[in-house]
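Question thread 4412

I'm putting together a teaching handout and wanted feedback from people who do this every day. The idea is simple: show students a protein as raw sequence, then show them the structure tokens that encode its fold, then repeat with a second protein so they can compare. Below is the first pair exactly as I plan to print it.
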Amino acid sequence: MALTPEDVLNKNFTATQFRRGYDEQEVDDFLDEVVVELRRLLGENAELRRKLEAAQQGQGVQDRTPSPGSMGVGGPDPDAVRRVDVAAKAEIDRIQRESEQRIAAARANAEQAEKESAARIAKARTDASNAEQQASSARQAAEQARRDAQDAQRAGIAQPAPMAPSPMAPSPMAGAMGAPGMGGGAADAAAVITLAQKLHDEYVSQGKSEHDRLLGEATTQRDKMLGEATAQRDQMLAEATARRERLLGEAQARHDELISSAEGRHRELVSSAKAEHDRLLAEANETHERLITEARQRSTGMLAEAQQKRQAIVEELERTQAHLNARIAELRQFEQDYRGRLRAFIEGQLQSLTTTETLAPQGVGVGRD
């Protein structure tokens, strides 16, 4: 518990009941508290001086402040310096976080653009693959028609059976394959193969053209979005750097201003604290001497009173011991008298029993007859 001058002035002790003075235990406890508080104040003073020296040596405050001889033990408050540094670092961190967030957003937009381009390219590739599959189906249909024609020619059939139109084949080929009155099988097969190859080439050419067009559009769009994202990122980086430099300048100016005000405030606080410390130390020393004197006086009075009480108690114990000794002597005399009477009574009883046993045989024999 921290002691204040008001606590020392307003301290009240419990008065004793049978003599003048205060309770010794309360006085000793209060003196212990005063000693602890003085030691704490001295320790805090030494710790503040140590921190001041460390701040002056570590942060170069000596170059901007007067010498220790001209300003006493004053100097910049380490707490104020630390608070300014923490505020500046927090602002710089906030700017960096904002810049990183903006850069992350630009990267996310670029990645989204790349994903969209990749999706378009995949769609173009899928369309080209579908076209190739359709061409392959048409080619397979043509091969099947050719094999059917060859089988029909080998079997000697003049008119081949019409083929079912393939869902993947175009309508001209279906008309050529399903028209009645067709000529020889070999010529029909060759025509079908030629038509299928032509359609296949057209589909492949269209698929490649569409694939190249979509791939070019996706690449152009991706490059455009990447350029925009890069420009936006560079712009945000430039803005963040400029803002960081501006805030650093403002923080440095604020830091210097707070250092200056903290130095003045620290000098005032150190001066007032030293004066208050000296005053409290003088009051504590005076109170300590007074309490020590009162305690010694009380100790002397209590010692005399204790000796008187001891003498009275010893006399009372001696009187009690004499009374008890007399009582013990009476009890011992009573015991001797009681033992004599008891012995006489027992001897009388034994004698009467002896007399009774001597006379008993005659009377007992008569009774048995």
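The second pair follows. I'd like the answer to focus on this one:
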Amino acid sequence: MGLDDEILDRLMAGYEKPEDLLGEDGLLKQIQKRLLERALNAELKHHLGYAKHAVEGRNSGNSRNGASRKRLQTEQGPLELEVPRDRNGTFEPQIVPKHQTRVPGLDDKILALYARGMSVRDVQRHMEDLYQVEVSPALISEVTDSVWDEVQQRQNRPLEKVYAIVYLDALMVKMRVDGKVDTRAVYIALGVTLEGQKEILGIWFSANEGAKFWLHVLTELKNRGVRDILIFCVDGLKGFPEAIQASYPKGRVQLCIVHMVRGSLEYVNYKEMRAVAASLRQIYSAPTAEQGLAELARFEDQWGKKYPMIGRKWRQNWEQVATLFDFPEAIRKVIYTTNAVEATNRSIRKVIKTKGAFPSEDAARKLIYLALEEAKRRWRHINGWKDALNHLAIAFEERIAAGLR
């Protein structure tokens, strides 16, 4: 429905400064108020079945009964409305339902601010500064708590039958447990579907990791419908290979190269980090496992005396490091690093870094869920996925077919 220039000219008559349009008593708020009140009166007319002062209303059994005041919080600030009433009290407004004190878009703004790591007090000040809307801490908590059912549904929803890759990584958060502040690990599982789409499979909290914990996680994925996972990419999480063997014995395990390099550089002085990293790159970028081992030996010849723990670490984990050599370059770029889940974790760290300690696990789960929902908006299809999928479809043809049946 358009507005012709004549109507706009009449509305803008007398306009001199921005406040005339956008201010507390500006034109936009006046229009919003009038339109909402007209819509409320139209709804009451439909409810009663006759227009105001119409003869059909006489002895009809119900009639208009004045109006009540309602303060509605909007994106342009508070709005005072006159809500019409009927004598029998059966009128239920639709455009501004009973007990509703804010427009729907306002909740979305509160959630978006909270998901970016703002505290309740920060959100309160931000809403007042930008939108001239007064919201209480209790209201903000109520709005953010409204996502809890969605959090539960997402954690328990059915999953795809087959995932090409599942990345697992962890980050640490502080929360109150039994009255004390404790550090807990938050584990994130990020799956890549056969179509190349990224998907958060679940979030888990644990004080201790190990085979028992990871077996619980993988059993949950199975119970939610995951029949097979072709490749697991992990950061050396304790007990995870054993849990994979028990739950998905055919799953291939790739140790995250980024974590291997990062862990190796912890032994290196700052001035030599660039040179050591370049030497390590020769190992994992080698065309074959045999050449990778040759590059590892060359690395040990060059750096072994000064940094013996690095070569030892790579040899101890070589079986899981070398999984990538079984795949062509297209797949290696996708699987040899948990960069996908690392980027996700960075989004989470941005919002939790301002928190001293969460009051509970539920509070942490709620904020992390909102942060993930915000991060998902920036997700893109994995580059080069078609080439990777063509190879996976051949290498794992039987497993994919069996899992999809």
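Top answer:
Good format. For the second protein you could add a caption like this: The beta strands are 64-74, 77-86, 162-177, 180-192, 198-206, 228-234, 252-255. The longest helix spans residues 27-48.
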